[in-house]
């Protein structure tokens, strides 16, 4: 039997390569990695998903991994936008305070008397709360982060300062710091209490409001009107 050692391959013998065949040209677009969110804005998607989950059950008992799984991205993808869940909740709180401040500033800009503007701000407060329940729970619940972000602090201060300005104008010229403080306290706790009782599903408040959000807003108007009248009597 003839030896084949050292024989060269003939034209009919093909050398088999160990490399896999190329299936795409060099210029073809590469496939997206799993952590590249196909909507193009993973940060926004994470916030929206967290808000949706909070709206359903009111509890922040999810993790960043839970959000990643629901959005179909890798477990590590959220860390490109939020260091931890506390940072994500902080961003939700900042977003909420920004929206609340904007709503109250719109009331402040109305062409109306100071007491009417204060009443309008109370209505705006309640309307914001019932349409943004997840934000409100994060804003006024347990602090999402040991050290709130500068953005969150700035937006919360903007909302509070707007309320103070409205109350100061309603109390009138020459008001003492204590008078303004009391007006702020009563106005804030009244409308905030109404909003929270509604969000927690308390029967009496929902019944008095006729089971509608607009009914609750009308109740907020009644409360702030009573406050405005009390302020007027106090300043006489």
Query: So, CATH architecture of the largest domain?
Result: Orthogonal Bundle
Biggest beta-sheet profile: none
**What's the Cα radius of gyration?**
30 Å
Instruction: Give, in order, the helices and strands.
Output: HHHHHHHHH
Helix content: 55-70%
Average of the residue pLDDT scores: 82
Q: Kindly report how far apart the N and C termini lie.
A: 125 Å
Query: What characteristic shape results from the CA principal axes?
Result: elongated
Count of helical segments? 9
- What proportion strand? under 5%
Number of E-state strands? 0
Give the CATH H-level superfamily of the largest domain.
Tetracycline Repressor, domain 2
Q: What is the structural class?
A: mainly alpha
Count of discrete domains: 2
> Which CATH class of the largest domain applies here?
Mainly Alpha
List the defining traits of the structure above.
236 residues, mainly alpha, Arc Repressor Mutant, subunit A, Tetracycline Repressor, domain 2, 2 domains
